[in-house]
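Work package 3, deliverable 3.1, input record:
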Amino acid sequence: MSDLKHLPLESLHEEAGARFGAFAGWRMPLTYPAGVMKEHLHTREKAGLFDISHMQLFTIEGANTAAFLSRACPLDAAALEAGKSKYTVLLNEKAGIIDDLIVTRLGSDRFMVVANAGNAAKDEAHFRFVARDFDVKIDALDRVFLALQGPEAESILLGAGLDLADLSFMTAAEPRENWFAARSGYTGEDGFEVALPEEEARRFAEKILADERVIWIGLAARDSLRLEAGLCLHGQDLDETIDPASAAILWAIPKKIRESGDFIGAEALRRTIAEGPVRVRVGLKPDGRQPVRTGALLLNEEGQTVGKVTSGGFGPSVGHPIAMGFVAPGYREPGTMLVAEVRGNRLPIAVHPLPFTPHRYRKG
Amino acid sequence: MSKTYFTEDHEWIRVEGETATVGITDYAQEQLGDLVFVELPETGKTLKKGDAAVVVESVKAASDVYAPVDGEVTEVNEALSSEPALVNGAPMDGGWLWKMKLSDKSQLEGLMDEAGYKATIA
């Protein structure tokens, strides 16, 4: 545990009674005294505060930035309006997903990229490699990054002195110098992600926490919230062997880019789309109460292996176990009954539409 | 008169004559977090000390509970099927896991008393 990176606000989490664990090289709060169940439900009901400073923000700037990003990602960066965010991926030549990202256009030649903690170093190296052919400047930012998620988020931030009411889902702004605020998140709820300098962060977090509608939320509930919302976790549901068509995230790639974009991995992705993926990501609902976890094999009626669970646990809001995984395309239709192998037992499990809980984003 | 013993794996075993009730400690339930499923053994199953007897599943993970001593399962806590959170709320009372008939009471001598256990988690 000694090599783990520490959150700048670690002492605040300790004061809140957090239980810590290692995640992606960081010492992260897993749960607080409320416990994962209450934390999860509280987020959907009111609002939860997450310290996501383990995630990495990059600014990329220079006259060539849009072209650079459209090469690195299956993205029409030039068409992205200032203040708009887009979910996208970083692909290798085989269209395998190196990471999933949120790209925001800050200005004509400036973009913000938010990357996953565990992939940050790899992403940066990849960006710098691709950038050899472009005139761009890439900076990894040192920020505290907080997410406030849930229906009360907007009014709580207003009370903390930050008015983000003008933002709609997947738009962003720079409300103060060296701050970045986006209406986005990883829970399926309305909410915001705010990056700010460490010197200002403690005071800002304390202002938010002074609102009695807010509690800290740990990584355990972050995981159950995102799974209910049907959102992928890179390293589990996505990795460098999985392409966007198999991952069922082609919605993130504009049709024009799929057809004619010159991004890394384009050829491989077009081939996969033309031939059809050999496995596809689906939602899964185990029958009964027993959770089916990551790694469990999925069998058809004949007992043949037809897939694998990549994320599984319990959904506190839906009140039953939930999972996500990959199956052969013939088994992708919701309602298809499969069997999951768990510790030698065979549990019935149904292919289920995603998300498990409806998204409640504030669309523009 | 019953006597309660504890294991290094955070189980408790309350012995009355030749039978015993087994569960996990308050410390263990706190570490696991909110339980959502408990996989109980079949009545009549023979357990060896150290066997994985029960699987307790929290929102996030599944963990084994080991048999603290040898014996035969005589009863399981059926209430946990519909309400696994009993283990969180009352781990040493309504959240018990299984009862067993002991086959070798001398094995109890290797276990800790409450004071000894508390010293290990302090």
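The first helix of chain B runs from residue 26 to 32.
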